[in-house]
Amino acid sequence: MDILVTGILLGGTYALIAMGLNLQYGVARIMNLANGEILVAGGYFAFIAYTATQLSPILTIFLVAPLAFALNSLIYRVMLQPLVNRAKSRGQLESDSILATFGLSFIGVGLMLSFFGGDYFSYSFMAVPVEVLGNTYGANRVLSFVMAVLICGALYLWLNRSRAGLSIRAIGTTPASARLVGIDVKALSAFTFALGGAVTAVGGALISTYLTLDASTGVVFTLKALIIVIMGGVGDVRGTIVAALLLGILETLVATLLDPGLTLAAAYVMFLGILLFRPQGLFGKKPT
Amino acid sequence: MSLTKTDIRNLILAAAALAICALLPLGDNGYWLGLGVTIAMFTTLATSWALFSGPTHYISLATAAFFGVGTYVTGLGIDALPFWSLVAIAGLIGAVLAALVGLATLRLSGVYFVIFTLGLAELVRQSITWVQNNTGQKGLYVLTDLDEAGIYWWLLGLAAAVFLTGWLIGRSRLGFALRVIGDDETVAAHSGINTARAKVLLFMLPGAVAAMTGAILAPRYVYIEPSLAFAPILSFQVVIMALLGGASRLWGPLVGVIPFTFLLEAVSSNFPNQTTLVIGIAFLVIVYLLPGGFVGLLGKILHRLNAREGA
Amino acid sequence: MVNPVLSLRGVTKRFGGLVAVNAMDFDVAEREVVGLLGPNGSGKSTTLNLVSGALPLTSGTVSLWGSPISGLPAQTINRKGVSRTFQLVRLLPSMNVRENVIAGAVFGHRRRWGHDAHDHAEHLLDKVGLGGKGDMPLRQLTYIDTKRVELARTLASDPKVLLLDEWLAGLNPTELQIGITLIKSLRDEGRTIILVEHVMDAIRSLCDRCVVMAAGTKIAEGTPTQVLSDKEVIRAYLGDDDA
Fold first, then answer.
1. Chain C: touching chains (3 or more CB pairs < 8 Å)
2. Chain B residues with CB inside 8 Å of A95's CB?
3. Residue C243: its pLDDT value, please?
4. What architecture does CATH give domain C1-81+160-169+186-243?
5. A288 touches chain C (CB under 8 A)
6. Domain ranges in chain C?
7. Distance CA B25, CA B157 (A)
8. pTM to 2 decimal places
9. Who among C94, C106, C114 is closest to B183 (CB)?
10. Mean pLDDT lowest for which of A273-282, B114-123, C153-162, C165-174?
11. What topology does CATH give the domain A2-277?
12. Using CB atoms within 10 A of its CB, is residue B282 exposed (0-12), middle (13-18) or buried (19+)?
């Protein structure tokens, strides 16, 4: 029971991070491998804001989100839009964007290393125990989970109820037809990419309240987010949430019962299972 | 197929170049030999990488995983078996591991393959660390009488074997099948090519070669531990060198390996903290400035010269 | 029909809720040219994709010489002697004209390699009217020439059954005549051919029989003259009189 709750609390934040990646890949068609560095940058921002001005991370996210949005928007327009324009096929865009975002990822790590050094960073925010279902958990974990649920819920409603959300889902399904019905695919792809980056950075700020991060941990989160996105199905919000919770529970299970050093290995076994048996994602229809 | 005059000339030239390279340890035993080992290592890795990824466009980041497995084969077996048999065993294990990875991922799109190979080294590293923690073992000592020059000659031999294999594959049905697959997988299948089998078969080659390279280099490390043997950065360096040179020609990666090795050497001795930054920039240079690598650039220049002569 | 080369029984394809091909039944005899007709979106190309193995069937069977081939991957079907062209011409951009043809000869129904494949490709290029153009890069080809290269590649494995997906579409009247003569010569060599086609002249002069589809279902079958005067066929193409 204890494992289940801890797992779900962790999975909630994972869902937020993976949601950001899913927006970027599902709609803007960019497999953003620098996603984890955006997350760590969000974490750094929250860390600095808290240690310097005692600004609560819950408030910091309202700063992190627009900043990350602007940064990702810039990255998309300057670096990724040219790749989209020159790509002759989906496959070419895929390998180009993979290589380009690898480059961004390394540059991100390099910059953060030179500004902040290679040390782990952490701070103590709301590190008080609260009781949930008979067991105690860190208040920061619970709060992060609640925030993640709120943001995921808002995104889900916005994507499914609003007109802009409908357009974005249309691009995710068939970009060519979306253009035909008068949707500005270029502008909305850029917007969605930036939004995805903002969501991930917020996830980073939240996760920094209870996990220690360092400049080069980004890639681990990128991998986990990728696994979640593929497991949940590209462009599938509901699948992403379920997959994130499953991964959170599995990791906690393995960390508690076996060895905390095996969490990524566990995630991988899950990934392998998905690749072998349901490559279309948990809720995806079999491609025909 | 019979050999043409150009084929024979190229083979003789390649053999001569190999012979000259083999003389290096006689001239210097310090800095330059060390650099020679690094270049021979990356040439072997990048060339075998490009044999698979060049025609298929699948970006493999599994090099570090295979390499690490190879070092562990030597580390575990050095006291019991002769060195040459360990290299062979490493190659075999690498090929089998690559076949398993290929079977799981290569029938799916390229993204799945990249992601899977990206974490593969980490997966193996975590598993080995766990086993070591549970058995109370920490690292492995590799003590042999194989010196730097010996390692260099082994690597040179492996590099020669990779070039020869690549040249033979280029002339074979398998090589031709891979080119068709890289151009259009649907056409390939409708021309009778078993696309999944061709891809898995060819992916076994870089798997085997990287594991053998790891096995050969293990004595250089003396002490092997998981975080050293499975350093993920190796996979990225290989990708950069191969693409920087150009993966569309057999000799392309070599053209990328030499300058990039010198660059990394210079950066790591002068600005040791900036290597990640350099690797990041190298990726961007490849994507935005040199999409076909040096080989592609050369092709463009030649094409332009020809066009001017024709006009 | 005695011993049909190819027979479809209850062949059905669903995409989600949409039934693209619904319980198709028809046979093709040896050396027969069968036209597969129907308005756009009626499921002709999908039917061809089901036969060639490009798509898996939802249900039903396709048999070649009496043994089922449905469910087999495309490469196996090709090796059994079924070869196809694509609705939008698909060539191999990194290769020259000759290599494009050789690509069809190496792995398919009858395999050739080395000089044998090279000479065979030259022979086929002559046959489709591209003699001497083997070394050309693809970007220098005209539209009909790209179609010729694709046909030569399709023929390179010496297939028994040819599936031509709108191979004559987009040709000018002169080219069309050349194309029709070419396809006739293929039948005279003993090949069995299914054409998906819209060009009525070609259908009249080439097809022994036609199968007409509308909304995924077979609505008529017979000689070109029969089906083209069939009321239901006319309605499918032109809509109801009072519409």
1. A, B
2. 57, 59, 110
3. 41
4. 3-Layer(aba) Sandwich (3.40)
5. yes
6. 1-81+160-169+186-243, 88-159
7. 14
8. 0.88
9. C94
10. A273-282
11. ABC transporter involved in vitamin B12 uptake, BtuC (1.10.3470)
12. buried
